[in-house]
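The material for today's practical consists of a large collection of protein records. There is nothing in a record beyond a sequence line and a structure line. Backbone structure tokens are a discrete shorthand for how the chain folds in space. Nothing more is needed to start thinking about how sequence determines fold. As an example, a complete record with its sequence and its structure tokens follows.
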Amino acid sequence: MKNFFYLLLAVLLYSCNSKEKQIAQNENLKNENKEDTEIRTDLYGSWVGDFMIEERDTTREAKEGINKINILIKKITESEVIGQSIVAGNNRPLKGKIIKKEDRLIFTLDEPGDDKNDGAFVFEVINDTIVGIWTAYNDKKEVTKRSFKLTKKEFKYDPNVMLPDYDTYIDFQNPKIEKEKSLPLPDDTIARKEEEYDEYDTPSLYRQASESVYQINSSTTKLKESQLKNLKKLDLEILRNTIFARHGLTFKTKGVRQFFDFVDWYIPISSNVDDQLTETEKQNIVLLKRFEKYATDNYDSFGR
């Protein structure tokens, strides 16, 4: 009888322990599911705007400027946020979390840190806008802090979009500076006259594109040699890069970005769009490159 009692007690204790374990497991599973449940899916997508300089090393020559940035939000859960930062030819993964403060959502997202241009983003959603600060990991960079104010935009390839016709397209990033020699003074000595004349820099000269950059569609029309033979080198370069801009390529060089970052329809979305090009676009790129090789440009002075 005593053995039976002990056996019954052991069964009861085992049963209780099993129930407690099951309850704990169910609670853990519930918490895991809660952490994995996606929230605020309305924030998913591209947030686009200017990447403004806030802090820079003023002892160095200014090379970096305002860029267009796309913060792409892909996934949000209670424990994790996944996204991408796409700017100036860089396409970097983002990972972090959100912090809830009363009715505010504050995002802290980090780039991996294995690239010299990586940094950390802190931003919050204010109405329909993302506002925040990016800080470089490398405090020796020319620009160590930037601000941004982004609005949500949907990227969609449209072969018919064109560069605006209300602006002039001048290549301010690649000026031509010519050296000129000063004339000798009448009373110079013979020894002075035998020396080389002094050289000085003339005002910077720039190349300007023609109206063809917003009149010719290099994505929808199969270009002909007769259309290109009289175009400037800059015209050809812009017509070629407009193809890539329509597909959302993020451009590495400032010389190209200067023509597209201000365009409303341009959204940098990828660092390689080669597999997205149409056959017409591929053929046009080959033809444009061939003409670029031998084309020339006229240079003139322009105010900035």
In short: The chain has six helices and 13 strands. The chain has two domains: 41-153, 170-300.
